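Help needed: design a sequence for this.
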C-alpha cells in the first residue's frame, strides 16, 4: 500500500498536470472538458 507521503506526491503531480492542461485549454479554446 502507498504511504501517505507517496499519495500526497501523486496528488500534487496530478494537480500540477491539471493546472497545465487548464492553462493550455484556456489559451487555445473554450473549456469543454471538465476534470473532476
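Sure. Designed sequence:
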Amino acid at each position: 500500500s502507498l504511504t501517505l507521503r507517496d499519495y500526497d506526491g501523486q496528488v500534487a503531480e496530478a494537480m500540477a498536470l491539471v493546472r497545465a492542461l487548464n492553462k493550455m485549454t484556456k489559451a487555445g479554446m473554450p473549456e469543454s472538458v471538465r476534470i473532476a
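The chain has one helix and no strands.
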